[in-house]
# Entry
Amino acid sequence: MIVPQLRNLLKVRCGVLTVEIEHVDVATLEKLEKEGVDCQPKAATVRIIQDKYLQKVHFSRHGIPLPEFMQIDDLESAKRAGDLYGYPLMLKSRRLAYDGRGNAVAKSEVDLSSAVAALGGFDRGLYVEKWAPFIKELAVIVARGRDNSILCYPVVETIHKESICHIVKAPANVPWKVKKLATDVAHKAISSLEGAGVFAVELFLTSDGQILLNEVAPRPHNSGHHTIESCYTSQYEQHLRAVVGLPLGDPSMKTPASIMYNLLGEDDGEPGFHLAHQLIGRALNIQGASVHWYDKSEMRKQRKMGHITIVGPSLGIVEARLDSMLKEEDSASQSGVLPRVGIIMGSDSDLPIMKEAARILNMFNVPNEVRIISAHRTPDMMFSYASSARDRGVQLIIAGAGGAAHLPGMVASLTPLPVIGVPVRLSTLDGMDSLLSIVQMPRGVPVATVAINNATNAGLLAVRMLGISDPDLWIRMTQYQEDTRDEVMKKAEKLQRDGWESYLNP
# Structure
């Protein structure tokens, strides 16, 4: 209970009152609201969310997809729930449950009594949920402004260890349709509540493509810690913007991929601190890693002591960096320069032409790789290369091919990365067959192209495309154009000054 003096202080000096966790005295929040204190999110929202059963009832009434659920008051009602929903059966505490606490699984009817006991008995207030056969756990951070405007952060995948969030991958590696559905469910859920702030919406993705809401937290959340480094507006700044009435910030990611790794206590006391500090030491050698240590005085097993966020050009790369950190590998193996452009060709006979693309990219310091991959002779290798390119950090592919020129189109059909085709001149048809093959790709499989044998222009086009989001390349390309212009001007001046005979016979 808040004493009268503190209540008066809140009314006089507090502009907005918000919460860092939903497990608060909501009755006092309601009194403060009646006395004029601005609470965000609203006390009514906190009351709904802090009781997980009421939360489920609320979202059910608003048409949000949920696992089936029911309240239980005694062992008989628990058995009826088991008969109705089957086993395994999820039992949950209605209140004071987070980080895996307050959940118990009954694998059969004989487990019900022990599951109830593990949760503190029926007097604690329990309910059950039908087991959700999920294949992934997803989450969406949703920001709601005082004007009821709503912005959603990219969908993330959460991986749990003993029911505690362990790893968050951003963005989630799921199809766009799944991301859209997850975002829509999260948006609809938060639209049904009152008040401003940041909300975390935890979701289940089932094997048949359904999205089911698990639960909501009315605050910045573990699934949004990555936003500090990976998004234009962190969830913490966003929460402050929302509750005080400032415009909501851009929630989009400013880096292609991010992983958040929770530093959970591996042992109690000093041994646990020692292990955590060893891991932090390795993290500080990982490219793109940021360490957040919470400076808690007591170390316990599975206690959240901090987190490490790793950002990078693709999810595959940041996952590899995380693996390197966890496996105590030499971080030097992760410090090598990764290719941004892949240069591929069907035969080494194309190399004299395709090397010019590599020469241009090297001139602009664009990391690249050169590979022989045949659409006809090594189709499995082509499939593997195209489907894995983005995860390895490749942003663009230059494919050289002669004759029927299948390689550019086949690769373009296997990856969403842009593909530039280089028609290579063969001994017959003078390369026109290659050019016409590349420009006649079926609708839906776009391949850019350049003149026959002109891998130089393919390299320059690649630099220009990368330069759209790379200021350094943009400036260097501008300088290249100026240098080219100056070179032409010098030749023109020399010709005008010396005459054509002297120009041709220096």
Notes: The chain has 17 helices and 18 strands. The radius of gyration is 30 Å. Residues 331-335 have pLDDT under 50 and may be disordered. Residues 13 and 194 are 24 Å apart (CA to CA).
